[in-house]
Here is the input.
Amino acid sequence: MFVRGLKRKCFDGEEDIEGTLAGIKAIPSYNLQRQSLLDMSLVKLQLCHMLVEPNLCRSVLIANTVRQIQEEMTQDGTWQMINTQSTGQASLDRLVSTDILCRSSKDQAEGKHVPAYGTFNKDFESDQAQDSSETMSTASSVQAPRNLQSNVWEMESPQENKGNFQKSLDQIFETLENKSPNSVEDLFSEVDNSYYDLDTMLTGMMSNTKMGHCDSLETFSSPTNTASNSNCKSDLNDLDHIVEILVES
Amino acid sequence: ADIISTVEFNYTGDLLATGDKGGRVVIFQREQETKSRPLSRGEYNVYSTFQSHEPEFDYLKSLEIEEKINKIRWLPQQNAAHFLLSTNDKTIKLWKISERDKRAEGYNLKDEDGRLREHFRVTELRVPTLKPMDLMVEASPRRTFANAHTYHINSISVNSDYATYLSADDLRINLWHLEVTNRSFNIVDIKPANMEELTEVITAAEFHPHHCNVFVYSSSKGTIRLCDMRSSALCDQHSKFFEEPEDPSSRSFFSEIISSISDVKFSHNGRYMMTRDYLSVKVWDLNMENRPVETYQVHEYLRSKLCSLYENDCIFDKFECCWNGSDSTIMTGSYNNFFRTFDRNTRRDTTLEASRESSKPRAVLKPRKVCTTGKRKKDEITVDSLDFNKKILHTAWHPMENIIAVAATNNLYLFQEKVN
Here is the structure.
């Protein structure tokens, strides 16, 4: 069920942690636990059964959880916020398709007060004061949603999904990004290519969407996904629009 | 046998309907007490079986529509036939179940086997007579209410006017007239203009048992809205809003998920309603919106296991709840084939198990206990040894007597209060 390389950590009381690659028995720190929960949630959002429409209630609850985690991580500075300008330059498509995690970033950009979650769950037992240096590169630890069913709420055809795939990836990874993408080199220097292939593809996708001048980057990423996506995107955007109208009526 | 997905007694309790994942409906009927079999009173036997829904394919979205029966609701009986509504994710059907125990014999124009008689053979006219035959129970679809729901139907509820009913999906609630299939009225719509802004869905809805203008619907954020259809045609504005303030000390990333209400049921007397969320059952007084009047913990020992339950998706299980006929006791299911009853007057709760090993016919059920502390007593079960695949999501209580129906995956258990 879980992608290779994704460490499963569950932090229930004194339960043994199963499935870790390292096999170390230790109570994970709060940040690690939170990150693990975020990873798990994103995986859950992707693993929608393509045959039958996904359970909307479940998707909404998971997405709300992801948003909560992201807001909290933003609060304690684990993530830097997206530059307003970068989203401002985004195409109309991306502005309209507000991403599922983007709530607080919008709020922050507009200067709204985001409620802080002061109390932590007892589950997250951690005596170690977690230092921010422990902040892992979010890019490397999150699996790229290959089959992300976009707009998890919209009941769209799988074909349509390919077009929205690009959009949704933007959404997810804009918020997961932890530095402003000033240069491509900076991005790639952070990536540990030895982790697994998805990483490279992942960062390739990010720069693809953020920079706008994506051609050169396609060679870095796994050709199967990014190439096909950038090809599909423009073609299917129109189709999206039409099908969306049909579905809504 | 398929996984049972809904259980419902009719208004008299003589009939019990179950729907399953394969789209079938099985109706059980209570045996009448007879002198020759005095102990058979209370036994339910199969009365009728029929295929209510078939799997469908939505060509526009390239998605399958499951045939699983989400809910069954009986209509009050008005003549010799019985009527029920059954629904899958998209389509509601009205079924008529009727008995045939007589057969006409002695037709003039056709033989006993149905073949037309030659005209020259008909020498005299006779009046056909009714002869008894073996009881045959026929189920026939009378109405199909389709194409009104974009999202998955989670509830149907028959109105006390016995002429209309509501159907609720994740984002909308529609009002139907039982006689009209080509039109329904949308009475609640919480779909945001931009779907990415969606953070809350409808999880259950029910009409008030006496006031035909009042209904409630619950949400994934743990709130209940009571609406009055007299106030406006579109009831997006609620008349009452029920929400319990969150306890800040127990807040976690799972708080919202476990607050999501999986079932809402009015009491028979219409003064209270009950809601089921992941860990508890709450009884609300309809006149008090700011908090429930009673809260019962179903399986509080799971609170420290929420992460595992999130990982294996169990945290999204939708448990139902039900009242007994006098509203003095409430019942709901749990894991490991356990189900719980709470006596509202004595505040006593019982945990029972629905399994073959522990339920020999006519044997008294032994109360079970889950061990929450370190030391496990004899006969107790530790939390870690609970089987989370054995979940009791659907239960029903006879409207007048203490007979309960418990669906444990693909088995149906019927328990009765022991009378000496």
